[in-house]
Design brief:
about 400 residues; Neuraminidase; about 0% helix; globular
Length: about 400
Amino acid sequence: MNDSQFHFVDDPTVSITDDGIIAVAWADLENRDIVLQIYESDGTRRFSEPVNISKSPDVFSWLPIIVISGDNASNISILWQEIVFSGGSHGGEIFFARSSDGGSSFRDPVNLSNTIAGAGKGRLTTHRWDNGSLDLVEDNNGGLYAAWTEYEGALLFSRSDDSNGTFSKPIHIAGGNGELPTRGPSIDVGADGSVYMAWSVGEDESSDIYFTYSNNNGRTFEKPQVVYNTDGHSDAPQIAIDSKRSIHIVFGESPHGMFSSYDVLYTSRNADDEYFDSPRVISGNGVNDISGANYPEISTDSAGNLYVMWEIFPRDARRSRGLGLTVSDDGGRTFSPAAVVPGSMDPDGGFNGSQQGLLMRKMAVNGSGLIAIVNSTFRQNEVSHIRLINGQSNLIHR
């Protein structure tokens, strides 16, 4: 695998501060590394050239997740999948790096997984999986929480309480040991430090979304529960917690099983409630000739507005060709009509990239509702791009 020659960029991820500073990380696959650029609130680049984070040119690094915080975006944390072959049937380790000087320097990358089970792979079937099956979030006190799955099926979780990014020994949440393989974990943290996690499972035509939470900063978790028993194939959840402790989950749902057309469904519950509401479709048909919407993302701002984005799949196209977006200004009771993210659907730009998997974080929203979206496009043997799209959503005022 690591002897392959790839000459394109891919796998962008984004984070934004409350004062509008944006960090974008992506995979430079020609050099096999994860790189970073910071955009100041006035749009200028912080660095003349992207900063190399992974510094492992002999091993492919891809599908990062980035979190920035602190004054002037001084704290930068990045989690990614490194295609290290450690002795198992599938290569994959989870690496982490941190900067406390705004990205000018990073501590040496640390291997959080140390496994031969293929970390970062979210198995859908025996022969199909998404790489990038991992997530990273930060709480209000600077604590970091990481989760990832393995090809062999397990979902692992690790936490860090110190500014150096020293993580705990991973704990097992679900999967493995004869259970269905886990995939696509998503984490968020409430204002009180409670940690919430959702994920899906593979090798099941009628799979559902699973959920658990921790009230002790991720030291232990409650027994996982099914969010809602649906008739179809549920996949790729993402979770967000608002200031009122409401839990919001979006996911893809196909009534005809995996590899069919999907819609984006939404459900929610208060943190003190026991059950989630019946999920409902929110993706709609934002443009003509759309056959599916999947791999959604969700964020919330300080006013409790919800922002949901997803990959658009045109008819007869296996690859995503754009991004859809909807917004709720009433806590998820109603959503605006689905719209196409400007600049995300370019017939001449090829398909959306992310050739190693679509389990990503391509949208970030700050407290005031400023949105930052990244996307990669790829036209084989011709061109690839990483694009940053940012601004205030005009969908919020309906």
